[in-house]
Amino acid sequence: MAAQLSPRPLATAGDTLVSVRGLVKYFPINAGVFSRHVGDVKAVDGIDFDIKRGETLGLVGESGSGKTTAGRVILRLTPATAGEVDFEGINVLELNRRDLRSLRKEMQIIFQDPYASLNPRMTVGDIIREPLGIHGIARGKAAEVRTQELLALVGLQPYHVNRYPHEFSGGQRQRIGIARALAVNPKFIVCDEPVSALDVSIQAQVINLLADLQKQLGLTYLFIAHDLSVVRHISNRVAVMYVGKLVELADRDQLYFNPLHPYTQALLSAIPIPDPSVEARRKRIILTGDVPSPVNPPSGCRFHTRCPVAFDRCKVEIPAFTEYEPGHRAACHWVEEHGGKAPDLIRGPVVVA
Amino acid sequence: MSLLEVKGLKTTFTTDDGVVSAVNGLSYAVEAGSTLGIVGESGSGKSVNALSIMRLIPQPPGKIEAGQVLLRGEDLLKKSESEMRKIRGRDIAMIFQDPMTSLNPVLTVGDQISEATRLHLGYSKKESMEKAVEMLKLVRIPAPDKRINDYPHQFSGGMRQRVMIAMALSCDPAVLIADEPTTALDVTVQAQILDLMNEMQQRLGSAIIMITHDLGVVAETCKNVLVMYGGNMVEYGTADQIFNNPKMPYTMGLLASLPRLDQVGDRLVPIVGQPPNLLRMPPGCAFAPRCTYKMPICDTPVPLYDFGGGHVCRCYLYDERADGQKTTPVENAPRIADDAVAKTPQELSA
Predict the structure, then answer these.
(1) What is the ipTM of this complex?
(2) Before A120, cis peptide (omega within 30)?
(3) Of A84, B107, B266, B305, whose CA is between 20 and 30 Å from A151?
(4) Hey, is the C-beta of B217 within 8 angstroms of any chain A C-beta?
(5) Which pairing describes strands A350-351 and B35-39: parallel, antiparallel, or unpaired?
């Protein structure tokens, strides 16, 4: 089969490519001589969202929020505990091994750590060729040609093909990881913190590369990151996770200009902006305490232990993930009881005018 | 006289492939009560600079080859190891990046915090423990009198970093060196820690050296900023000068390549190329191979240029000798901060 890099037609742009429903992932905790099951790490505890064809959905959250686990479960790199992941009408979580393997061509991942995710004993060429062979896409000469195409696509030089990962810097390694993911010509890529391990001046190179590739190849991204500035830059829509649950999902600008959930507000206000004059004018919402453990998540709304506007209902009742304006969903009792208005956490718990 | 002055510091490491100058002739000063941000990428020498001040460079392979570190006029590099031990923790304290690995897992946090006051201030065991409780309370750890008997693994990451701060500040040090103090923490916890450090500084009047790669953190906390690249200072100024009127193409490039939470641009402007290999440093400006303004003269060692108000920069763009060599870069020109958007190199030098 001839290798090709022609852009995929976007005739169906905007329809749903990936649909996640009630996704749950518990990691069992076993203890004692008989490895008795004593509890679960509730990494992902019932999340729903859709990813539209050709878009970038940003998934943000702090450590322990379950964002990475969500990405891995969607690709079935880790088995789910419950829920459904629908990819172009196929339930990914129910596929048998053979079908799953062929679906892997459509769904790929770019890992966070470019130092740990490349086999040090394989050359760049071997790394990029491996998926081509496994999926029977190209062999021999055709594989060579395809490898060179991919190297050029991610901005590496033809002579890099015989080098080993240790000869590259972090940014270049991440390019190798991207070329490997693109080798099978996927439709959907989970980018798991792809720039977090890179230096500031290199981050921008990789972000631009991902944006260019998306345009060129019609890719759909689930972009997982803890850095909201990066997510805001690259995403069309953003989902915010907190201890295994989605707390807010909105169009990028809706989320940044009108965050409904108190956690989203605090998260946005906590991010320093590299401009001292802006910083001097900003007011910060300082949350108390730390992110709770997903082993024993708080009852009711999981944010109630740190929330400045929490009231009795938040401690007992899990808030519904409700749509308050078109495409803007949030899970908060306060917002619900105030008719979809966000609390003003800086001036006290009053409604934002 | 400045509280802490670093002059011509040069620290090298001997490796199998040759000698690496991690810090190469660095000079700066820090005043009491102010915060200096040191910004740089990995390998720029920012952490080695901190370890050199503390005389914590492992020797060999490391060696402080030249320079002075003057604390209230006294050269720390001339002190004996036992004199240094009295200075560390009392006059200069350090907060490390990783609170998970920089606390001793087999001692309670009380033991670890109280050690400094017992050693440096001659407190009794009881007094030092009382002081430790007071410090934990100061860094807002709930139930400090009980938590004092807990071990580091019983604390979360943010709490461990608070313990580190409590430990570092227990002897009221004149200088606090914070090496990436919030890099390992989540943003909401980072906000708490930065807030806390600011409050501590106001209370104790310490000078803080904040080493970080995060320009946002610098903008939020620092009065002065030192930008490092390839082992040396390339630009220094007040936060306002550095962020609003950067002179060095590297600084401009860094600011342009950052996605900002409060702005959405179409495309980031990255700095091309890779950070320098310290084993094969360019002969002149370390940034020259990546610089869009590169001129032939950049291959010779670059002096510092003074822009007044303390703002200095190491770049030939501001030298008369470079006048005939300047070119206007067509592509990838650094996007300069708002007030300087249209400036070409010619205008910049004017």
Answers:
(1) 0.75
(2) no
(3) B266
(4) yes
(5) unpaired
